[in-house]
Amino acid sequence: MAWIFLLIAGLTELVWAAALKQSDGLTRLWPAVIGLSVALLSVVVLSLSLRTLPVGTAYAVFVGIGALGVALVGIVAFGESASLARLAFLALIVVGVIGLQMLESS
């Protein structure tokens, strides 16, 4: 169950990061409220995963899911660069997250 909480926490990062982007530096009320509220939810769900997972592994996976997901949202939704080098480095994040999950599962 801890890994499910961790996945949910990481995925909520996509929502709050995109909402904060839309808030235009916290100057637009509703995107700012959504972004900050979902950020709090993300941390709460992360804390549930920390009941059983080591903090170093959980946080690294949490940040990896968020970094990869937000980068992909940026590419798809905001027209950010999808250069070969950027995609290659994002793939390295995936490898790291999978590796950490495999180490904790064994």
Automatic annotation (TrEMBL):
Main localization, broad class: membrane
Subcellular localization(s) per the UniProt record: Cell membrane
SUPFAM superfamilies linked: Multidrug resistance efflux transporter EmrE
Topology within the bilayer: Multi-pass membrane protein
Pfam families membership: Multi_Drug_Res
UniProt keyword DNA-binding present: no
Domain of life: Bacteria
InterPro entries, sorted: EmrE-like (IPR037185), Small_drug/metabolite_transptr (IPR000390), Small_multidrug_res (IPR045324)
Membrane-spanning ranges: 27-50, 57-78, 84-103
Alphabetically ordered keywords of this record: Cell membrane, Membrane, Transmembrane, Transmembrane helix, Transport
Any coiled-coil regions, as ranges: none
Family: Belongs to the drug/metabolite transporter (DMT) superfamily. Small multidrug resistance (SMR) (TC 2.A.7.1) family.
Protein name as it appears in the record: Multidrug efflux SMR transporter
Organism: Actinomadura napierensis
